[in-house]
Amino acid sequence: xxxxxxxxxxxxxxxxxxxxxxxxxxxxxxxxxxxxxxxxxxxxxxxxxxxxxxxxxxxxxxxxxxxxxxxxxxxxxxxxxxxxxxxxxxxxxxxxxxxxxxxxxxxxxxxxxxxxxxxxxxxxxxxxxxxxxxxxxxxxxxxxxxxxxxxxxxxxxxxxxxxxxxxxxxxxxxxxxxxxxxxxxxxxxxxxxxxxxxxxxxxxxxxxxxxxxxxxxxxxxxxxxxxxxxxxxxxxxxxxxxxxxxxxxxxxxxxxxxxxxxxxxxxxxxxxxxxxxxxxxxxxxxxxxxxxxxxxxxxxxxxxxxxxxxxxxxxxxxxxxxxxxxxxxxxxxxxxxxxxxxxxx
Length: 345
Ligand SMILES: [Zn+2]
Ligand SMILES: [Zn+2]
Hints:
globular; alpha/beta; Rossmann fold; seven-stranded mixed β-sheet; six-stranded parallel β-sheet; 2 domains; binds zinc ion
């Protein structure tokens, strides 16, 4: 079968490898759709610890597929079932895992991050992932494409849940990439009035074409825009969906009393610490929140949003490729052309 492997920094290759063999406790999944994430691009550009010419890694953690083969001890699952995958596998023992937060486990493993992922025609699902519920049978009306992009949607939803969004509140999303779009869609679904900000007017234009309900701002006086947008009150919700320290610091003066800020995009270690004026937190009684990845429960919840027609996720998929063209897809994603790039198998 074909698989896209990372061999080191700036070195990905579509190579021929053996179809994985499964044991009695494992599942073999035939990949149907897999999406490219900013994390894949960073791993491609920077390499990844433990990955080199002799230890390549198959990338891809946003995916769905059809069950091809099931080990004889595997409960519930049958060949032919169509499933989405929450890619974070916890140890199952620590307090985070016991609380259902496998994505916060110190010893977590994840497909395409530190074990072989989904940019391959087949993928082996280990028994821990099966018995901990990482696979989700797709509910009615959810396609394999939608299930693949449900993974980042569930991560955005994790951030969303920290912000106690109320209908009619004013929300700003900074960063008009795929994650920013997903945040905007979730906020809109919850009845918030949504604006997006980005350095690229072109990207904001693209966002508005798929979300006519948003306001957008591309300029250097975000404070003036925010005053106008919120009728002088300030933002109830701000989400930073970009890895930029100055953006995090810039949110605090823009907030309304009791406002909630979610630092969604992580900041590269070399750019920490980020100086913030904590008096805004104090005098405006702000809530600063963070979120990373998503839980399996959140992954299943957002699948429900798609299934029930509450949120249209299909429109984030702007570019589709065959597996043979995957390196072109990576290059286009790196150049931030389009929003979400999806590979078909
Ligand atoms: Zn991702
Ligand atoms: Zn754990």
